[in-house]
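Let us walk through a complete example step by step. Step one is to write down the protein sequence. Step two is to encode the small molecule, flavin-adenine dinucleotide, as a SMILES string so that its atoms and bonds are unambiguous. Step three, shown after the inputs, is the structure prediction itself.
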Amino acid sequence: MASILPPSVDQRLRTGITEFARSMKGYLTNEAVMVGVESRTSSPIRIPRDRSTFQHTTVRGLYPCGEGAGYAGGIVSAALDGQNVARAIAVTYAGS
Ligand SMILES: Cc1cc2nc3c(=O)[nH]c(=O)nc-3n(C[C@H](O)[C@H](O)[C@H](O)COP(=O)(O)OP(=O)(O)OC[C@H]3O[C@@H](n4cnc5c(N)ncnc54)[C@H](O)[C@@H]3O)c2cc1C
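Step three: the predicted structure of the complex.
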C-alpha cells in the first residue's frame, strides 16, 4: 500500500485495519492474500426508465436494471431493483 498510496492515506489505513483486526479475529493474518482499497464509485451514468413500468423511456421492452444501469450501489440495492423489475415484467407480460 505504501508504494501506491500517499503516506497520509497509507498510515490511516494501517491504523484502521489494525483496529478492525482487534474486534474481528482472523481479519488480519499472514494467510491474507491481499488488502486493497475500493477506489471507484458505482455507475456514473443512469439509463433513463419509466417510474411505473420500469421500461426504458423510449426503447420498449428494455428494462435498465441494477448497478450498471445506475439503479443500485451494492448487493442489496441491486437485488431489490432486480426484484422490482422482475415484478414489472411479470405484470406486463403475464398480467399478474
Ligand atoms: C470488488 C467489489 C467488492 C464489492 N463489495 C461489495 C460489498 O461488500 N457490499 C455490497 O453491497 N456491494 C459490493 N459490491 C458491489 C456489488 O457487487 C454490485 O453492486 C452488485 O453485484 C451489482 O449487481 P448487478 O446484478 O446490478 O450487476 P452484476 O452483479 O455485475 O451482474 C451483471 C451480470 O450480467 C452479466 N452480463 C454482462 N454482460 C452480459 C451480456 N452481454 N450478456 C449476458 N450477461 C451479461 C455479467 O456476467 C453478470 O453476471 C462490490 C463490487 C466489487 C467489484
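Step four is interpretation. The chain has a mean pLDDT of 89.
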